Amino acid sequence: MKNLRHAGRVVLVTGAGGGIGAAIARLYCEEGASVALVDFDEASVRQQAALLREAGHTVEWANADVAQYDACARACAQLAAKLGPIDTLINNAGVSPKHNGAPAPVWEMHPQEWERVVGINLTGSFNLVRVLTPSMVERRFGRIVNMSSVAGSAYLPIVAVHYSATKAAIIGFTRHLAGELGPYGITANALAPGRIETPMLKTVSAQANQAVAAETPLRRLGTPLEVAKVACFLTSNESDFVTGQVVDVAGGWLMR
Ligand SMILES: NC(=O)c1ccc[n+]([C@@H]2O[C@H](COP(=O)([O-])OP(=O)(O)OC[C@H]3O[C@@H](n4cnc5c(N)ncnc54)[C@H](O)[C@@H]3O)[C@@H](O)[C@H]2O)c1
Ligand SMILES: CC(C)C1=CC=C(C(=O)O)[C@@H](O)[C@H]1O
Asked: Which pLDDT band, with edges at 50, 70 and 90, does 1 fall under?
């Protein structure tokens, strides 16, 4: 029997064209929500939306770069006009760029590349929160999940400094949101995935991933669905009194 605990909810997921975001969008659909998919890769987000519609789910999609405030505002207005007011926001879109096949050391990182990644991984989450919280505050209800990473609080040589810095900032951002928005019935939590099998991993050697699996207590990498399950839990009625928390989804890797 399906768990329809998100029936009646309208959920917006960024980075929903693939990887963890696509799994999150699908699980919300399966749990009864209407889902708005946002991604800057138009072909991917269109395809994910088509797959979900074919399965009978209520979805709309928008092609937007989360780093662009105006594009976020336009996309949210269009999506809310079709689905109704958005009450659940999953800020999942993020990038972990490589430079010549490896993370750029800080002394070689171009300032524009720093700005670009901060724009997507951090400002992108602010943009969506800024656009959507006025109606959440007005309706005295909202659920927000921001995607951090174990890299936000542990040194991971596989990523570069902009990535770690933005994922750490997401934790402070989330806790501040929890404090400020709590009195209006809005919760904000963060997820800190460990290594999850998604397209983001395609630049990492199989050997490196095996080494992570070997040092993970559960002895494997995670799946996008395992991250999605925690996002759905944290925004369901089962987590009504949970806010300002950072939840690792990492199989025990890098327990801190
Ligand atoms: N995969 C991992 O091991 C891992 C671990 C920890 C945290 N994370 C985080 O989880 C999130 C999802 O990662 P993933 O592994 O699914 O990545 P992914 O690369 O597989 O998917 C990311 C999606 O975000 C979209 N996207 C990227 N930049 C965007 C932008 N500016 N505007 C709109 N959409 C954009 C991409 O088109 C893509 O569909 C990211 O925030 C990532 O940092 C991933
Ligand atoms: C895919 C690789 C570069 C990677 C990205 C993000 C991570 C994170 O924890 O945020 C790493 O675990 C790693 O999988």
From this structure: low
Mean pLDDT throughout 186-191? 99
Length of the chain: 256
User: How many CA atoms does the CB half-sphere of 206 hold within 13 Å?
Assistant: 0
Residues 6+ apart with CB under 8 A from 168: 148, 152, 153
> Any alpha helices (H) in the chain, and if so which ranges?
19-30, 42-54, 69-83, 111-118, 124-139, 161-181, 206-214, 224-234
From residue 178, how far is each of 21, 28, 171, 185 by CA, in Å? 22, 22, 11, 10
59 exposure class (CB count in 10 Å sphere: 0-12, 13-18, 19+): buried
Domain ranges of the chain: 10-255
Q: What is the DSSP letter of 104?
A: P
Q: Which CATH superfamily is domain 10-255 in?
A: NAD(P)-binding Rossmann-like Domain (3.40.50.720)
Q: Which atom of ligand 2 is nearest to the CA of 159?
A: 3
Residues with CB under 6 A from ligand 2: 96, 149-151, 156, 158-159, 194-195, 200-201, 204
69 is catalytic: no
Distance CA(138)–CA(140), nearest Å, equals 6
Task: Round to whole Å and give the CA distance between 167 and 83.
Answer: 30
**pTM of structure:** 0.98
Contact 36, 14 (CB under 8 A): no
